[in-house]
Design a protein that fits this description.
Elements: H1 4-17, E1 22-26, H2 29-41, E2 44-51, E3 57-63, E4 65-66, E5 69-70, E6 75-77, E7 86-87, E8 101-106, E9 109-112, H3 113-118, E10 123-129
Antiparallel strand pairs: 1-3, 2-3, 4-5, 6-10, 7-10, 8-9, 8-10
Length: 130
């Protein structure tokens, strides 16, 4: 059983490890929402939509480096297809004591852990980023 979100996170992780400037991933609304949060938090420079040679939509992600070091140090899938993890707004775990961010999918869309706590809405924890 494949996990499209894990595949997406692995594309980003591998591109950083290879010191690439950009990477491309399959397009989905979930992938776009995750990439937008990463851009807003300063982990990647930009995200845009494109098409591949066969005409399929994809995401072109421009990676961000600070003094030749990746801006994104780690990204980890929390909830998997075999083990879904849901949290109430008061129980959402903090990534590295609040230094990183958690990305959740909620009834109000995909959002950061901080926003979910403020809006008092819980959901499924997709990944942690630091």
């Amino acid at each position: 059983m494949s996990d499209p979100i894990s595949d997406f996170l692995t594309v980003i992780r591998n591109a950083y490890r290879a010191n690439r400037e950009t990477c491309t991933a399959k397009y989905s609304k979930m992938h776009k929402a995750i990439a937008d949060i990463l851009r807003d938090e300063g982990y990647i420079s930009s995200v845009s939509e494109g098409t591949d040679a066969n005409g399929h939509k994809n995401l072109v992600i421009t990676l961000k480096y600070v003094d030749d070091a990746p801006a994104l140090m780690g990204i980890k899938r929390v909830s998997t297809p075999g083990r879904r993890l849901y949290f109430q707004s008061t129980e959402i775990p903090r990534t590295l004591g609040g230094l990183g961010i958690g990305i959740l999918t909620t009834s109000r869309g995909v959002m950061r852990d901080r926003d979910a706590r403020q809006q008092k809405v819980g959901g499924e924890m997709i990944c942690s980023v630091w």
